[in-house]
Design goal:
Elements (H helix, E strand, L loop, with lengths): L1 E2 L5 H10 L6 H11 L13 H10 E2 L4 E7 L5 E6 L5 E9 L2 E5 L3 E2 L17 E2 L2 H15 L5 E4 L9 H12 L11 E5 L3 H8 L6 E5 L5 H7 L2 H4 L2 H15 L3 E7 L7 H11 L4 E7 L13 H13 L3 E4 L13 H8 L1
Parallel strand pairs: 1-2, 6-9, 9-10, 10-11, 11-12, 12-13, 13-14
Antiparallel strand pairs: 3-4, 4-5, 5-6, 7-8
Helix pairs in contact: 1-2, 4-5, 6-9, 10-11
Length: 341
């Protein structure tokens, strides 16, 4: 049985035509499900009896199974969802003054193997399907009885290694009768799969793009992120420039501070030279320690020195506050703990 949440509007129209129905029914169905939150085809009053019977027999509108919900002292909520094949994935909802934002998982595990990241401890089992991406949001919205306004694809997995599904996911959530999340409220984070950055610049929906840099030179970046062997910094920087020139969207460079590894003044200087002239800003992220690795978190004083050095050198930067660190909400860690036990 197919899941409604796996259809873009175009795919749904195509399906309806295939079964001898009218394509305009697709918009009616989207409105019922995403706007009216009606999940029973029989209650959709403007849908013909024949179509209802067909949909009842062939399509489901199912949220994900909630395995665990954890709430942090700061209100951050972390869901562990159980997928149809028993895989567990996590999704985090954060409350901000501008609304709720959700951190979406794109794959079961990750093959990029960054040396500091808990998600990479479990090799990729599979890509998430479109309905599994969309229903992370619908499940959280239905559970919280509240609208989610911002979406970041920064959970477990490398979204550009599941490119086509992530693009369709964005189409569904951005659609005017879908979840209606504006392109400026959607961010996708990549570890730097360069050819996909070029592809992404040509997509119709222009979202925000974040690129995980984490080091200001190839020697260091290759040491901590093995993807740098395939796509070195210079290629990443050129792709970033292309993205900005085509989309006019300011790039975010993510930079985790790892104590004694990439957090010195000289690194801040090198970073500012590397990205000077690009319309971008650096999001400095406190490291959330993972017990399997030796990396340590840079202390706050040093983090603010790093931040100030970037500012001093004319680079836009923000020092991200930690959210939900008491429940390991940063990246991939709860699921890893569960799968181990
Ligand atoms: N695979 C994508 C998106 C998921 S990871 C990417 O790498 O960009 C989202 C962000 O969390 C990345 O910047 C990643 O480097 C960072 N991250 C991974 N492990 C972390 C940890 N333990 N503490 C803080 N940030 C972490
Ligand atoms: Fe994968 Fe991103 Fe973690 Fe690297 S940081 S292992 S790409 S999830």
């Amino acid at each position: 049985m197919k899941n409604f949440y796996g259809y873009t509007i175009e795919e749904l129209k195509k399906y309806l035509v295939e079964i001898g129905q009218k394509p305009y029914n697709a918009d009616q169905l989207f409105k019922w499900v995403y706007e009216q939150k009606v999940f029973d085809f029989n209650k959709m009053t403007n849908i013909s009896k024949v179509l209802k019977v067909e949909l009842e027999a062939n399509m489901s509108i199912n949220d994900l199974e909630i395995h665990t919900v954890q709430e942090s002292t700061d209100g951050t909520i972390k869901y562990l969802f159980k997928l149809y094949d028993g895989s567990l994935i996590e999704t985090v909802v954060m409350s901000n003054d501008y609304g709720k934002s959700i951190c979406i998982t794109s794959q079961v595990g990750c093959n990029m193997g960054c040396s500091f990241c808990a998600s990479g401890l479990l090799k990729k089992k599979r890509d998430l399907e479109i309905f599994e991406l969309v229903s992370q949001i619908t499940t959280a919205e239905n559970h919280l009885q509240s609208k989610i306004s911002n979406v970041v694809v920064m959970g477990i997995g490398e979204p550009f290694d599941n490119y086509d599904n992530v693009i369709d996911f964005i189409k569904v959530i951005n659609y005017k009768h879908g979840l209606q999340i504006g392109a400026r409220h959607i961010s996708v984070s990549t570890s730097g799969i360069v050819p996909r950055i070029y592809d992404y610049a040509n997509e119709e929906i222009k979202t925000n793009l974040a690129i995980s840099l984490h080091a200001p030179n190839d020697r260091l970046r290759t040491k901590i992120m093995k993807i740098n062997k395939s796509y070195p910094l210079n290629d990443v920087i050129n792709a970033s420039k292309d993205y900005f020139s085509k989309t006019k969207r300011r790039i975010t460079f993510e930079y985790i501070l790892l104590k004694g590894v990439n957090d010195e003044i000289k690194h801040a200087n090198e970073l500012s030279d590397l990205i000077r002239g690009i319309n971008a800003y650096v999001n400095i992220i406190p490291y959330n320690p993972v017990s399997e690795f030796d990396y340590k978190k840079t202390d706050e004083r040093r983090a603010s020195i790093f931040y100030s050095q970037l500012i001093k050198r004319g680079i836009n930067a923000t020092l991200r506050r930690e959210q939900g660190s008491d429940i390991d909400a940063a990246c991939g860690q709860l699921r890893y703990k569960n799968e181990k036990s």
